[in-house]
Write a structure and sequence with these properties.
Low-confidence stretches: none
Radius of gyration: 26 Å
Number of domains: 2
Helix content: 40-55%
Number of strands: 21
Distance between the termini: 54 Å
CATH superfamily of the largest domain: Aldehyde Dehydrogenase, Chain A, domain 1
Number of helices: 18
CATH architecture of the largest domain: 3-Layer(aba) Sandwich
Oligomer: single chain
CATH class of the largest domain: Alpha Beta
Mean pLDDT: 95
Shape: globular
Strand order of the largest sheet: 13-14-15-12-11-17-18
CATH topology of the largest domain: Aldehyde Dehydrogenase, Chain A, domain 1
Length: 518
Amino acid sequence: MAIVSKLDTPEGSPRRLQLSSPATLEPIGEIEVLPPDGVRAALEAARKAQPAWAALSFAERASYMRRALAALLEKQDEFIEVILSETPKTRNEALMMDIYAGCDALHFYAKETAKLLRPERKRLHGLVGIAKKLQVVYKPLGVVGVISPWNGPFILSLNPTVQALMAGNAVLLKPSSSTAFSGGLVGKLFEAAGLPEGLLTVLQGDSQTGQALLEVGVDKISFTGSEETGRHVAVTCAERFIPCTLELGGKNPLIVCADANLDNAAAGAIAGNFFNAGQYCGGTERVYVVEEVADAFIEKVVARASQLRQGAEGEFDVGAIYWPSQLEIVEEHVTDAVAKGARVLVGGRRNPELKGLFYEPTVLTDVSTDMRVLREETFGPVMPIIRVRDEEEAIRLANDSNYGLTASIWTKDTRRGFEIAKRIDTGSVDINDFPQTYGSSEAPFGGRKASGVGQVNGAVGLRGYCHAQPIQTDRFGGRQTAGRYPLSLKDDEGFQKFMRFLWGNPLGRMISMMRVPW
């Protein structure tokens, strides 16, 4: 992400921030910090625009998503250049992680939302089912606040925005100040699509702007970012009785089973650890390999890692660290590991050949659980490899973490891999691939433990931007209720006898679960 510095501004004027490239350290632009009264004005505009938007059919809302998709395809090179100017990714990472995934999200939710959010008829069981019919309708919450991070600044701004809009909400989007231009592309995209005014406002600014969004009175917060900030978001939302989804950090394990294809597993470990220079929440941060194949696996990893090209322009494989404090964390973790006995097989230092915030792709062995690199989120291009006796020890160590976001398992026996996956205490698992579940729109994505609260994407994600409202209709026009009073002790005794029949013998229990057609 871009390096942010405050600019001197005249007293009484809006504060301004300068952004500089983490790869070249050169300035790339400035933003004006939106003050709290600007956030309030955006909320007022969203409140006015949202009812008419919610009144549209899913097909009418989808037409705007399709226009946005057409605009994204047309402007993809322009958008990639903006993303690369403030994030030191490879062009391929920007293309796949941001543009391709953005196109897929726009198309998927335009096509599928009507099916996923249509009213549901429920067949009720027992006595209630004889007398009642139930429908569940999914009503938009109103105005949703989206706070997006710096490591996937376009897609992690666009994806929740698309879901919230298709569910019938208005959106206030607060991108990271470090990737303000990439996050701002979402506003430009929907402006090109002709989205009605007020439905989407991009709130540029810093933590003051983000805090104003938390407090202004939106109906939900969707947050992606650090555990520390996520805790603050959760507390603030709880105080205001509004829901939130929190997609936070991870210390994600990769398990190499004894029967794994080692060439593929080594390639998967390289991708999981070094994609986006290790700076994505689902990335691999711990590699557990069964002892009998450890030497061969490590040899293959070292050969691949040694060939990775690092740079800022032209063809390269691994980019820079996004901001200075993150580079310091990466350095601290490696220094701590080496001081406690870890061996550096590849990398292990800042890249002396490059000007920006570059840390060499690094492979560590002889790693132990007292090292920070195994306990804390590194979020950088560092692969710690741990030898284990067998898969059972790998499972135990994989679960020995405060985090639980993603995991990956490598084995030729995919049935056994599936059973291992179910035992990993994490939000999602990939078998024979590096973690990519977030990119599967049908899959609910979210973390366990300190990795977050709630899930995004698919039916679960869409419904998270709605209130599921049950509407129950009496089949007999209310006659049963009309005859309820006066109450009678004799009737109570009869009803108790009926209850003993209903749940006191097999026939009654069977009857208690019968369902009348809707």
